[in-house]
Amino acid sequence: MKKYDRYKPLFLPALKGAGKYFLLSAVEVVLAIFALYCASIVTSYTLDWVLLGQNPSIPAPLFQWLKSLGPLGRSYWLCGLAFLLFTMLNGLFTLLRRTHVAKGAEHMAKVMRDTLYRKLNAVPYDYHKHVSTGDLVQRCTSDVDTVRKFVTNQLIEIVRVIVMFVVAAALMFAIRWEMALISMAVMPILTVSSFLYFRYVRKYFTEVDEAEGALSTAVQENLTGVRVVRAFGQQRAEYDKFTRLNQDFCKKNIRLVKLLGLYWGSSDAIGYLQIALSLVLGVLFYVKTRGTAHPFSLGDIYLFLALTSRLTWPVRQLGRVLADMGKATVSLDRLNEIMNADNETEPGKAKTNCDLNGDIVFTDVTFGYDKPNDVLDGISFTAKAGQTIGILGSTGSGKSSLVQLLQRLYPVTGGEITINGTPINDIDHHLLRKNIAIVLQEPFLYSRSIRENIMLTAPDATEAELFEAAREAAVHDVIEKFADGYETVVGERGVTLSGGQQQRVAIARALMQKAPIMIFDDSMSAVDTETDAKIRTALRSHHGNGILFIISHRITTLHEADRILVLDHGKLVQNGTHDELIREEGLYRRIAEIQDYRAEGGEQA
Amino acid sequence: MSYENEVEFNQKEKMDSKLWKRLFGYAMRNRALFVRILVSMLIVAIIDALYPILTRYAIDRFVRPDAAPSTDGIWVFFAVYAALVLLQGFCTMRFIGRSGEMEMAISYAIRQEAYRKLQTLSFSFYDKTSAGYLMARMVSDVARLSDMIAWSITDFLWCGFYMLFCFAAMFWFNWKLALIVMAVIPPLAIVSLYLQKRILRYQRVARKHNSRITSAFNEGIMGAMTTKTLVREEKNAAEFETITSDMRKASVKASVLSATFFPLVISLGAVGTSFALIFGGAGVQATLGGSETFLGIITAGTLVSFINYASSLFDPIQQLAGIFADMQSAQASAERVLSLLDTESEVQDTPEAEAKYGTSMDPKRENWEPINGEITFDHVDFFYKESEPLLRDFNLHIRAGETVALVGETGAGKSTIVNLICRFYEPKKGRILIDGKDYRERSQLWLQSSLGYVLQQPHLFSGTIRDNIRFGRPDADDTSVHRAAAMVHADAFIERQQKGYDTEVGEGGVRLSTGQKQLISFARVILADPQIFVLDEATSSIDTETEQLIQSAITEVLRGRTSIVVAHRLSTIRNADRILVIRRNGAIVEEGDHETLLKKGGYYHDLYMHQYQEDAMQEALK
After folding, report:
1. What architecture does CATH give domain A440-514?
2. Domain residues of chain A, as ranges?
3. Which residue of chain A has the CA closest to B276?
4. Given pLDDT bands bounded at 50, 70 and 90, which one contains residue B543?
5. What is the ipTM of this complex?
6. By CB atoms within 10 Å of each CB, which of A252, B12, B493, B530 scores lowest?
7. What percent of chain A has pLDDT over 90?
């Protein structure tokens, strides 16, 4: 990996719109520091010239001009106001700097979040099957936040400390280089030692985090397993276990805090010793250079003290910032892993204007994850326009994969599927999916109102169309009974619908799509048989020339189909109508017999 | 973890002093620690306030603008300065360490107390309160409160002492100039407090948006397939962008507001410094010239010290405002934590029972009678809400050693019966007798220690397989563990694991399949060897092989114990001594063994046939 590759997928594109804010804030950093130092210089000027009548340490032309002002140039009021003004300017530029940094960083965060969200939509569905939701969410939220914090707190802080240091150094050297050297003697020590220190304590931070994690886990397990704990009467043992972990966490945390105390205490001492040294040597210089052409004045002593004490703590902080920089690159790498996944691609001509009303033909289709044919093997059949196709198969026989291939959620590994003569690989995947409505066994509803959920695929539909779809899905009456009716919010942030209700809302949603091809992937399993029949009657009367796929275990559902496909271990083992299959030895007849058993077999037992 | 995203929106505006008094009480439990922190802070603050005095001394004593300078004693001065610095560094080190100790003492005490409480609270509490909610109280709220309390004590002490000594020094040097400089403090305090509160409010808004982003990501990922099939990618992304825009707006607003804080405060502080320059400067000049202004005699050193004091005063004020604002925003957390500590358990042992049998934390096992396992429901009524009765005048006698299967629809009251037998709840009316004696006359632990319980969803704890099997009898030796595993046929798969019995099962047992978890939970019961066994059978289907293992495991566990099974498996039902068909409100509509009930041709017959069909379907589709 090249050195800058890390920043390419996410960081640099996000930086693009934020660059101007960061540029502005860099300028504001310089101006703020300039104003800050000017305020100190005003004080030193006041002491030297206004109070004692000695030459102040300010540029000669400025001094000439101030002298030309006469008594005004030696007015305490002017000095007081100038001090106030410069302090306010410092405040103002700091405000602007922080505003612009916030704007830049928040812009970056937004662009990064948006890019990630789009990326997660653009990757093939297969990607989602192989990653954990929790981990992805964690990355998209906290890792983005780590990068954002790095930009707001650290990047600009590094710039600020460097500018502060350089300007202060220049100022001090201009006044007296010997004193400048002495006044900055400990700065490198502070930076380096705090850098090393924070790298050193990182493992203690990790230990504390781990101890806290263990403690949380213990609580979590105790809470979720509370029935087991009580039923085995293990409260005491659980309490003792918690006590041990709690003690361990406290012990480790105290050790860390003590280490931090040692650091803050000693680096404080180093910083103040520096100030003491500057003060004492400043006095010695004052005495030694008194009466020479360039005396070291009282104002200079004050200025050196002020600059030194302003520099000490940021310089110390710099070491910590540098030590923490690694965290941001780790986060960025974790995000890049997402960004570097391949997008869903168009394998063929990506036609966007073809008619999908027509026969569907599977020709020797194979599909698999590990091996090219371990899920589906040599599937061939034709679904004619207007037909209903029933599918029966055991768990893991590949029936869901079969219908998902039709939507190109996965690419076939062999053979070909055509719709109305066009190979699906040549159809734009958006067009393809818009023309195929699919209802899953455990449908996913978005966390919004039922109305919005049903109208997702047809946002411009009328109320009447909405109600009709809901009635056909036999869910209208159920929805009307909710206190908020169609405005009831479902999902994560709303009410939980029963499995059957979810399935029926999803069916209504699919109906709204008015697609020529519809797939019901075991999507009425949680609906009772009567309602199931009602829904199917409604479907048939409306479907016209479209093709309907129904995956089900219910013979009552399957027997009406024009063609029934029976799958076993990825192979199409039976293919025919109910009347044909019921006469053949095979899975279909066995299932039919079991289901009939209930009606007649009761008396036999 | 979702509980971290929980944000409190209803900020209380009024400070509840009783609440805080109680919380700060935790900090005061260790008086010696508090006194030590106080002394350290006192020294640190005094030395902080001394630095301007040292500068003043250096100027007036060595620089002497009014006379010839002198360096006599300057190295002694340096030595004193350095000694103070070292002393302060030492005290800083000590107070940080000790505040850390105090923080940990507080969090330790609250967590212990809360955890202890959680071990005794009844299931009515757990049914109403989610684990996520409790986690948030136990982990983040306690961490936040103890951090805040410990460090705000430290900060408060420093701010108080430091300001006190600064005021004292200024008054000592020149009380008139002191008054002038201090005029800025009241507005400074008001502005600080006002702004801190607003900043916190905006940060809360930003956090709210942040949790929206988290759930949007969550939804986007969970619904990835649906989004693709509905071709919603573009629209979802566009909607997501409005959320991130809201977030950006709110965050920038919060940042700008907290950025405004700084210039306002330092400008107000600078007013104090310029007062010092203006009036002090003129005063020093007059003094040097041999006259006096209204300030009287004032030296150059005093002037410099005033400038230093004035420019450092806004810091403690800002900190104090921060403490109050923090407390206000943490009040909701504080209330929630304290209300957890104050929750009363609905199921409690009577004082007499506690005296004889001990508490669940400190049992007196020597006083426990052995348990036979005879259970009697005597005219029991039960409800969670009075308007929705679950059991009404329920009577049942279960002989010691009998296996009773409960069947019936969801909501008929099967789980209620189980909960009552386990004394997770107690009857609202009537009695439940164990071995002929009302179980409320004995302790909960007495009963629960003799009770084996296996849930629909087996729950394991992180640790090794061995630890989990030993859960009910932590002192069991390896031979007994192996024997228990062998009895339920769990030994085969355990020994196939790389580390055998020392295999880590992961949090909640994630590294094992459901079937394996169930086998281990049966081994756990076998080892604990309870007199009464309660099984809430799972409906979920598992692979045939494991299913058969579980069937035989159940047979093994049921042997020779009083067993109550909420049954779904045909084999379990068929082998029960007695089957009860429960309808609404615990009414027993059919009762008898398998043969009898099947002949009767009622509900049980239909249920059995349906089950049979389902099983056959499962078998055919495998």
Report:
1. 3-Layer(aba) Sandwich (3.40)
2. 5-339, 353-435+517-525+547-605, 440-514
3. A80
4. low
5. 0.83
6. B12
7. 45
